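In the design runs reported in the main text, the only information available to the sequence generator was the tokenized backbone. The following block is the verbatim input for one such run; it is reproduced so that readers can re-run the procedure and compare outputs position by position.
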């Protein structure tokens, strides 16, 4: 029979890797708790209209990258390409703002974008996503950026860079857009096809193009920071002051415009050199009109998302998130011993010990080899003779020492010995 493989760009996370994933997720939960961020879980599929309106109909994500289907030929639905729009939908739908407009929320889960798969770019990928709602103060921008960098450091990411920019607001952005169009007048033909199209729909994105031909043309393009209105300028100044007070190193990247349309004011990205072309580990920013654009009240927000595949690929190999090995392997020789081992092993498991054994009637040597391979800390050897004498041999696999223990009432003493050591 032919083998059925997974879909291109959709990846299995195998048991040897899940330890790292769990480690990162547990650290996120632990740290987010200290910053008062609560978990929310939203569906992976939403009405397509949510993403069109939320992310922007002319963004690459919505135009080209969504997995969209017609449900029973009637309603257009899409797999979520990101989590922000869904979280805001839930915040509005459940009137979460009614009791308290301030909400700090996180979600961890898969996102779907039909992009060309390459290193660090998948069609199903995972994000750790945080959103702060109802906090206008620039200190909230500082707090969420600090939360991001603190988390990345805590999981062991080294050598990353924080880049920030301000994208202005509906009051100041039109003048900047005009300035870009004016600057590029006459050079349009030299731009790539995508950028030529973007000039008419989403001209800021031209700054973000990675192609050399476009970068050359836009090298001296005006900077958005020179066009900010007093309110946006003051906000950006105060965000920077907060980051400076925390001693956070950052670089202003005036070309960073982000790929989603909802951003206003602060935008930020964390990059890591080792990632190559897809070098963003995380990205985010402020979105002061998204809640109202999705039918909610006039409440502002700021958030970020970390790409888990990219983050995990950069973490060093440390024991802390290697797979959990057994406390005890029970090597039983003979049917009676196996029966006793089976009962004992399962009772120990139910009391919280990690126990493994082998049912295949293999030799002692081969069972010891398996215990070593699984990384078991101890092995309990239970043969016919030991069983007849009501005893077993407990071997310390690290030290290579062995002691005889009585089987009668051995559970408590095994738990005490094995968990404590
Ligand atoms: P984003 O920049 O589109 O932002 O994605 C955030 C991160 O997700 C990226 O920096 C990257 O690490 C990862 N990522 C994106 N696409 C892929 C892919 N195809 N394969 C692997 N990793 C990928 C957002 O999604 C916004 N919702 C962030 C946000 C939250 N802004 C405000 N709140």
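Verbatim output:
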């Amino acid at each position: 029979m032919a083998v059925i493989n997974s879909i291109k760009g959709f990846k299995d996370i195998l048991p040897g890797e899940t330890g790292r994933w769990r480690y990162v997720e547990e650290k996120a939960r632990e740290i987010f708790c200290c910053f008062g961020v609560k978990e929310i879980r939203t569906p992976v599929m939403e009405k397509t209209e949510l993403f069109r309106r939320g992310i922007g109909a002319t963004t690459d994500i919505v135009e080209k990258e969504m997995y969209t289907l017609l449900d029973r030929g009637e309603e257009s639905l899409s797999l979520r390409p990101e989590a922000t729009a869904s979280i805001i939908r839930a915040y509005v739908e459940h009137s979460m703002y009614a009791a308290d407009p301030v909400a700090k929320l996180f979600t961890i889960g898969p996102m779907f974008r039909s992009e060309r798969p390459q290193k660090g770019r998948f069609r199903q990928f995972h994000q750790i996503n945080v959103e702060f709602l109802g906090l206008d103060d620039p200190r909230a921008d500082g707090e969420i950026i600090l939360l991001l960098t603190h988390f990345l450091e805590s999981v062991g990411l080294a050598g990353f860079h924080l880049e920030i920019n301000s994208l202005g607001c509906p009051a100041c952005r039109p003048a900047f857009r005009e300035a870009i169009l004016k600057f590029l007048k006459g050079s349009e033909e030299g731009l790539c096809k995508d950028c030529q199209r973007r000039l008419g729909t989403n001209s800021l994105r031209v700054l973000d193009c990675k192609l050399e031909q476009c970068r050359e043309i836009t090298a001296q393009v005006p900077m958005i920071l020179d066009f900010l209105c007093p309110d946006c300028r003051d906000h950006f100044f105060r965000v920077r002051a907060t980051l400076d007070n925390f001693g956070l190193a950052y670089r202003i990247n005036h070309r960073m415009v982000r790929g989603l349309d909802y951003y206003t004011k602060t935008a930020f990205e964390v990059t890591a050199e080792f990632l190559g072309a897809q070098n963003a580990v995380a990205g985010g920013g402020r979105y002061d009109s998204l809640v109202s654009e999705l039918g909610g009240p006039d409440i502002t927000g700021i958030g970020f998302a970390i790409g888990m595949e990219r983050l995990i690929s950069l973490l060093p190999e440390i024991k802390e998130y290697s797979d959990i090995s057994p406390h005890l392997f029970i090597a039983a020789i003979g049917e009676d011993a196996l029966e006793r081992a089976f009962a004992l092993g399962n009772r120990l498991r139910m009391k919280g010990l990690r126990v493994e054994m082998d049912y295949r009637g293999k030799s002692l040597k081969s069972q010891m080899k398996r215990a070593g391979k699984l990384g078991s800390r101890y092995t309990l050897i239970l043969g016919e003779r030991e069983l007849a004498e009501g005893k077993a041999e407990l071997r310390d696999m690290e030290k290579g020492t062995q002691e005889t223990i009585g089987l009668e009432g051995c559970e408590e003493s095994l738990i005490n010995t094995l968990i404590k050591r």
